[in-house]
Amino acid sequence: LFARPWTFRMSVPSLEFLPPIGPLEIAFAGRSNVGKSSLINAVLGQRGIARTSNTPGRTQELNFFAPDDTLSIVDMPGYGYAEAPKALVARWNRLIEDYLRGRVSLRRVYVLIDSRHGLKANDLETLDRLDKTAVSYQIVLTKADKLKPGEIDRRVAETLKAVARRPAAHPVVLATSSETGEGIDLLRAEIAQIAP
Ligand code: GTP
Ligand code: MG
């Protein structure tokens, strides 16, 4: 799956522009700047296919990447970027919430959490929404290279404990780094299991 070339397919600014239901969709969600676009680049092995930035608010639309017409990976805008203009934040939140709630082809959401920070209030709101709509999700810790191995293990255990009783949560929490490649093969294997 990941040996194939993936291409950028489309950028969706609001829900009326979503493509018709067809390919299975796997979305990457999380707080602004958590590393969603970087992780997609690492998983696809194509540096720069998803645009990244040091400053939050880089990804502003739903960006679709695909290897063929059976599967898409969707890079999402981040939530929780308080400094962005209010109208923009409202538009992103609407897009994120509506897409995560109402898409029948959405098979899995990867909810990315910064290893250093752990689950924040707005992450928990996202998990609550996914649990309520029974959309399957898995937690992925990002930027694992920023922590010592012992600290990462503790963060994984703590996060696992926090989601253990949630109905739509995958029972494994992955620790990843887009910088070192840690955990990327495991994430690829998870995605390959969902792929048609
Ligand atoms: P938005 O689109 O703005 O919501 O951000 P995003 O979640 O897509 O984050 P992005 O991939 O643009 O990365 C944000 C910053 O974090 C960039 O400066 C990346 O270089 C950095 N970053 C991403 N992943 C890692 C990682 O695994 N390790 C380290 N050290 N830095 C990372
Ligand atoms: Mg991004």
From TrEMBL:
GO term, biological process aspect, one: division septum assembly
Record carries keyword Metal-binding: yes
CDD domains in UniProt: YihA_EngB
Cofactor: Mg(2+)
GO molecular function, one term: GTP binding
Gene3D superfamilies in the cross-refs: P-loop containing nucleotide triphosphate hydrolases (3.40.50.300)
Keyword annotations from UniProtKB, A to Z: Cell cycle, Cell division, GTP-binding, Magnesium, Metal-binding, Nucleotide-binding, Septation
One GO CC term, this protein: cytosol
Occurrences of domain EngB-type G (ranges): 22-196
Pfam family, one: MMR_HSR1
UniProt similarity note: Belongs to the TRAFAC class TrmE-Era-EngA-EngB-Septin-like GTPase superfamily. EngB GTPase family.
Job description of the protein: Necessary for normal cell division and for the maintenance of normal septation.
Name of this protein: Probable GTP-binding protein EngB
Gene source species: Prosthecomicrobium pneumaticum
Gene name linked to the record: engB
